[in-house]
Write a sequence for this structure.
């Protein structure tokens, strides 16, 4: 019987066998959202009408015998940073409150073409700047595992929606870890594809050279199916890779790591990492060895500078990307009482429309780019990027994939780090190097930390355009873990009510 | 005591710098596929990219790259093997992104020159204007200022923005400082812009209409006491909308600065606006500090690396330099300077060259185009070349030379062709305009004229040759101008015993 | 590096067109100093021989043909405008250069 607890793959099978219609499946999820989102607050906008319309269309096509994409009729939650025509898109900010894009992002166009049903837009840290979703201008999202804790960020809403069974699939974006970190903190699978693997056209830009769109799901195979649905070259995105999408679905099904060399990054572990996190990580390594893989220790000495470089590059690019929010063409306008000039209205609007973290990064970025400081800050950060790339290249010369814990800790309490920006930034310490080098990475749930019972994620990384490698390792490890646990990790999640 | 221009240049040495912006005539915009047509309905040629909507991304127009390289080659520049776009960050309502995608330290063309020739007291002199760089950028939207007294910015109640122009490709050509022009600085400036305009036109990369804004010039002027060996502070004058204004703006600035320096005041480095009516410049908005554009490489675009083969192929497309061509034609045609100048100013050089290539006698070709056809064109307020083709004109001239048409008849033929009655020969046929030189037909008319004016005939018989004019006139009138006047005279005088 | 003063932040806020209260300026100055203190360690390894990476992937020459594509309609373009008039975006008076 298909329920909200089924995987996307199971739902797709049921749909194709006509055991359930897409409209029924969509309604199940809309009901779930209604039942639990009051507690979770994963969604900023639920598009019931639009979703039912999409589902109806897919059902009609299926009835007419048309050939459909693998995920046709399956529901999905969309991070509110992607433009969806006619649907409110806020990027978690007041400055875009009420804005309905007149166009679809490429990813949304692809999802629509694939018949995927978009349930609504999910909550996020404002303009993707944050690691907890607490920076949303519309209130934070709660972690379904423990409603007093954050789900991570910036794609916290999408991760929570999947973990809370409000959607089997979700889309997020990842600039410094914003898919992988929430995936780890909510016990689901999240992938940041190789930079350029998925189009950024229609994605509200935060840090252009680091941003990437990626899939969330509860299983590796589901994630792979969604990955293939959204990836591919886009002529509207000059940074999009013009090459075939890696065969990630096939890799996810391989279930075999025999002979693979797996590199453990020395610098991403040890002190500073919660004991239970390290423990589950090491146990997972043992399973990989049991599966025939070889563990190698590698060193990436420049990774310790990656965080600093990220917090120069990202705010710099963001300070420029966010300049367009000036109230002239769209979005919030404040202070236009006829007595003030355009410049003043711009400044008043931006002051009112941007949250604290966004303002902080804009000022930081403006500083790092300003004349006299460019070489010392932005320029130097771009050099660290080269060093991080080189570290990865040297490491991948020795191994097939690299692994580390995704985050130093499990999910932290709401409010715990929100007053200490630098402490918050540290939660991305293991994920940031991946974005800096442009490679891809997966967060795979590998257990619950003994001390708090909260999910732990393992990060699996592969060289540029070799995303299939981490799907292969992830799929195999997931199977081994399932064997070990006897039931999926998410069956441990507390009941949220209803259903 | 105020200095006049002569006085100013006796004491001070001007240094000149020129920045010219060229609007390319590509069909679509620099970074998106919107049309570039002039005069479209407001905001009807915009899209997410050129409106700067959240999520939009630029993609470079290949034709714009080609045009930029052509311009660089025509100006003897080196084409950079590696060039990049950069963001120039500043806020202004006509800038959709509040940064301009331009080029900074890696422009597409560098280190060229253009030689311009001007008339000096010592005869023709050549000045080499060195070109520092040629780079690509994008145009802004257009603002209308509403309310207020003059519709100008100051005192406007609000402004209305049309972004059709935003994103149209611009090429900026920047000269190095031009020293040693002395009092000829205004003429050198004008000659440079003129020659540049002609080259750009011959390349076919732009309409180069200063009045329409597809060619814009900013003039930088500084003064230093003669012999001081130093450089003064420069001012930049914008809003120079014609070649004549270039000359006036430069001389106006030289005068203004000289008088300030004489009065012991310093020159402020500022942007000034040229005022057509007075020929003076006025200050623009004074800025508290120089704008910090915080340039950094555009992360949404990848570098441009034109290969040597492509550059050489483009080089073969560079036509003969207009000034070289003009000299060549002038020598070929043995054409006086004044007439040459008239032809160039009236933009008739091309069509005259064509007409001569089709076999027309050179002097007559020039005379017809500059004379009768231009006269008719001015009456109708159109371009001469839109009235009649070089083929028709060549045909008409051939008939004149062959004796089949008189100038008077030819004018009627021209009129007929212009009215659309057909080709020259068909007009002649239809209107019966061929010269009558058949003796017997003429004799009939002559005898009739003699019969009508017996006294005049007697006077001629008596030796009063000039009196023949009246009878010739009568014959011409009777034949509707189709008679060959010279033949008439010959026959008449012979008949009356004087030939 | 010199400490970040409140005036420095005010200047940056002006460059970024974000009006900030005096309180915010003070707080931001302190926060900025802390963050800069933490991030400036990039200078330790950013030596002269290292080339900067502005792009994760080494792509070049990505162009499009000079072909006209459909634009948004005037209504679509203006759909998000806080104010509009005469088919154009209506904005407060622009005080500055023409």
């Amino acid at each position: 019987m298909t329920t909200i607890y089924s995987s996307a793959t199971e739902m797709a099978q049921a749909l194709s066998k006509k055991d359930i219609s897409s409209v029924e499946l969509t309604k199940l999820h809309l009901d779930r959202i209604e039942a639990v989102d009051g507690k979770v607050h994963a969604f900023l906008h639920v598009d019931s009408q639009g979703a039912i319309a999409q589902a109806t269309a897919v059902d009609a096509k299926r009835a007419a015998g048309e050939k459909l994409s693998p995920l046709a009729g399956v529901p999905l939650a969309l991070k509110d940073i992607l433009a969806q025509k006619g649907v409110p898109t806020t990027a978690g900010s007041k400055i875009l409150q009420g804005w309905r894009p007149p166009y679809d992002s490429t990813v949304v166009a692809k999802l629509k073409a694939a018949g995927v049903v978009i349930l609504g837009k999910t909550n996020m840290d404002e303009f993707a700047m944050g690691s907890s979703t607490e920076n949303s201008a519309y209130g934070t999202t709660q972690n379904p595992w423990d409603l007093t804790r954050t789900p991570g960020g910036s794609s916290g809403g999408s991760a929570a929606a999947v973990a809370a069974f409000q959607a089997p699939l979700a889309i997020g974006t990842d600039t410094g870890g914003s898919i992988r970190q929430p995936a780890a903190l909510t016990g689901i699978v999240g992938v940041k594809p190789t930079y350029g693997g998925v189009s950024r056209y229609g994605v509200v830009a935060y840090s252009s050279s680091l941003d990437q769109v990626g899939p969330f799901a509860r299983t590796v195979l589901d994630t792979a199916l969604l990955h293939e649905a959204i990836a591919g070259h886009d002529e509207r995105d000059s940074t999009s890779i013009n090459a075939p999408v890696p065969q990630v679905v096939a890799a996810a099904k391989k279930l075999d790591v025999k002979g693979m060399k797996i590199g453990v990054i020395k610098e991403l572990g040890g002190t500073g990492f919660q004991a239970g996190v390290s423990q589950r990580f090491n146990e997972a390594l043992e399973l990989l060895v049991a599966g025939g893989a070889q563990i190698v220790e590698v060193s990436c000495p420049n990774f310790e500078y990656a965080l600093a470089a990220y917090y120069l590059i990202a705010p710099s690019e963001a300070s420029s990307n966010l300049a367009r929010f000036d109230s002239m063409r769209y979005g919030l306008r404040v202070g236009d009482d006829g007595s003030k000039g355009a410049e003043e209205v711009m400044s008043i609007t931006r002051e009112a429309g941007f949250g604290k973290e966004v303002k902080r990064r804009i000022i930081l970025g403006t500083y790092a780019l300003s004349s006299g400081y460019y070489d010392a800050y932005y320029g130097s950060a771009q050099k660290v990027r080269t060093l991080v790339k080189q570290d990865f290249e040297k490491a991948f010369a020795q191994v097939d994939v690299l692994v580390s814990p995704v985050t130093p800790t499990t999910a932290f309490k709401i409010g715990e780090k929100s007053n200490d920006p630098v402490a918050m930034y540290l939660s991305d310490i293991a994920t940031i190097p991946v974005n800096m080098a442009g490679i891809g990475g997966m967060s795979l749930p590998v257990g619950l930390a003994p001390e708090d019972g909260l999910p732990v994620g393992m990060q699996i990384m592969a060289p540029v355009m070799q995303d299939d490698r981490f799907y292969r390792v992830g799929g195999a490890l997931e199977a081994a873990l399932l064997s070990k646990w006897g039931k999926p990790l998410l069956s441990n999640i507390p009941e949220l009510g209803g259903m | 005591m105020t200095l006049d221009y002569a006085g100013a240049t006796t004491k001070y040495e001007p240094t000149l710098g020129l920045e010219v912006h060229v609007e390319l005539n590509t069909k679509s915009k620099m970074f998106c596929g919107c049309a570039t047509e002039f005069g479209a309905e407001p905001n009807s040629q915009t899209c997410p990219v050129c409106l700067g909507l959240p999520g939009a991304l630029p993609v470079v127009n290949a034709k714009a790259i080609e045009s930029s390289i052509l311009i660089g080659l025509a100006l003897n520049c080196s084409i950079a093997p590696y060039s990049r776009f950069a963001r120039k960050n500043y806020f202004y309502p006509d800038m959709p992104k509040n940064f301009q995608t331009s080029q900074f330290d890696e422009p597409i063309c560098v280190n060229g020159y253009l030689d311009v020739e001007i008339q000096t007291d010592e005869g023709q002199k050549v000045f080499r204007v060195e070109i520092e760089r040629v780079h690509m950028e994008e145009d802004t939207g257009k603002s209308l200022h509403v309310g207020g007294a003059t519709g100008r910015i100051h005192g406007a109640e609000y402004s209305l923005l049309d972004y059709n122009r935003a994103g149209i490709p611009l090429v900026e050509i920047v000269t190095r400082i031009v020293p040693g022009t002395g009092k000829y600085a205004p003429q050198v400036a004008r000659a440079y812009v003129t020659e540049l305009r002609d080259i750009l036109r011959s390349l076919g990369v732009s309409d180069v209409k200063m009045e329409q804004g597809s060619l814009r010039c900013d003039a930088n002027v500084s003064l230093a006491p003669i012999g001081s060996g130093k450089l003064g502070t420069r001012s930049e004058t914008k809003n120079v909308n014609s070649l004549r204004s270039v000359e006036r703006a430069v001389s106006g600035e030289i005068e203004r600065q000289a008088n300030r320096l004489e009065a012991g005041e310093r020159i402020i480095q500022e942007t000034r606006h040229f005022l057509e009516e007075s020929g003076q410049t006025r200050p623009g908005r004074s800025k508290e500090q120089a704008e910090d554009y915080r340039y950094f490489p555009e992360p949404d675009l990848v570098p441009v690396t034109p290969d040597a083969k492509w550059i050489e192929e483009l080089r073969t497309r560079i036509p003969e330099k207009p000034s070289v061509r003009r000299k060549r034609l002038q020598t070929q045609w043995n054409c006086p300077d004044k007439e040459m100048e008239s032809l160039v100013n009236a933009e008739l050089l091309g069509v005259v060259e064509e007409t001569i290539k089709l076999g027309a006698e050179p002097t007559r070709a020039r005379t017809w185009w500059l004379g009768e056809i231009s006269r008719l064109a001015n009456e109708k307020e159109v371009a001469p070349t839109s009235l009649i083709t070089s083929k028709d004109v060549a045909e008409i001239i051939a008939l004149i030379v062959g004796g089949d048409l008189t100038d008077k008849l030819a004018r009627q033929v021209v009129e007929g062709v212009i009215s659309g009655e057909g080709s020259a020969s068909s007009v002649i046929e239809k209107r019966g305009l061929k010269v009558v030189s058949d003796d017997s037909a003429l004799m009939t008319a002559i005898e009739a004229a003699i019969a009508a004016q017996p006294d005049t005939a007697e006077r001629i018989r008596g030796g009063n040759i000039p009196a023949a004019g009246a009878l010739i006139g009568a014959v011409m009138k009777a034949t509707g101008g189709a008679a060959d006047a010279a033949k008439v005279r010959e026959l008449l005088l012979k008949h009356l015993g004087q030939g | 590096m010199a400490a970040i003063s409140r005036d420095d932040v005010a200047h940056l806020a002006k460059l970024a067109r974000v009006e900030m209260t005096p309180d915010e300026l003070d707080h931001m100055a302190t926060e900025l100093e802390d963050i800069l203190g933490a991030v400036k360690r990039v200078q330790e390894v950013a030596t002269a021989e290292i080339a900067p990476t502005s792009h994760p992937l080494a792509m070049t020459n990505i162009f499009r043909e000079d072909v006209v594509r459909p634009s948004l309609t005037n209504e679509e373009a203006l759909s998000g405008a806080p104010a509009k008039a005469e088919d154009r975006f209506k904005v407060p008076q622009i005080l500055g250069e023409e």
